[in-house]
Design goal:
By secondary structure, the protein is of the alpha+beta class. It has helices at residues 23-30, 41-73, 96-107; strands at 2-6, 18-21, 36-38, 78-82, 89-94, 116-117, 123-125, 128-136, 139-149. The longest helix has 33 residues, at 41-73. It is elongated, with a radius of gyration of 23 Å.
Length: 150
């Protein structure tokens, strides 16, 4: 058994935990894939310094994400004008890429199309739609889009 410090949260524990694992598991998997380091006195001291910096950066990142969330949610419901037929079918469709461009232009921050989930696929009719936006790790929220005739 070898003592290691976890660098990632996993089934063994959270970041910074000192745990005992089998030597083969540590040498062949955890350490080569930068998931852990050996728990020597020097490594523990270095990691404690690093951990405080990581926590500080994480808090700053969460503050930025919360501000971004407030900006995006203030747009809801987002009204999009599009040309359509008499029965309300759009000429073309509105996909996650076009939605990300519209939101990005309104909040002056680039939102990737990969963070926007359209549960029922591209939007093809004049109506109100509920979409999901992922911002950070597991932070997701619902957002409403109202498509109207141009």
């Amino acid at each position: 058994m070898i003592k290691i410090i976890l660098l990632n949260k996993n089934k063994l524990g959270k970041i910074g935990s000192v745990v005992n694992v089998k030597s083969g598991y540590a040498r062949n998997y955890l350490i080569p894939y930068n998931k852990a380091i050996y728990a020597s006195e020097e490594n523990i001291r270095k990691f404690k310094k690093k951990l405080s910096l990581i926590i500080k950066l994480e808090k700053e990142e969460l503050n930025k994400i919360n501000n971004l969330y407030k900006k995006i949610i203030s747009l809801s419901p987002l009204m999009i004008k599009s040309k359509c037929s008499k029965n309300g079918k759009l000429f073309g469709s509105i996909n996650s890429e076009s939605i990300s461009k519209i939101i990005s232009s309104k909040i002056n921050f680039n939102i990737s199309k990969n963070f926007i989930i359209l549960p029922n696929g591209p939007l093809k009719y004049v109506s109100e739609y509920k979409i999901i936006i992922f911002l950070y790790k597991k932070k997701k929220f619902s957002f409403f889009i109202n498509i109207v005739s141009d």
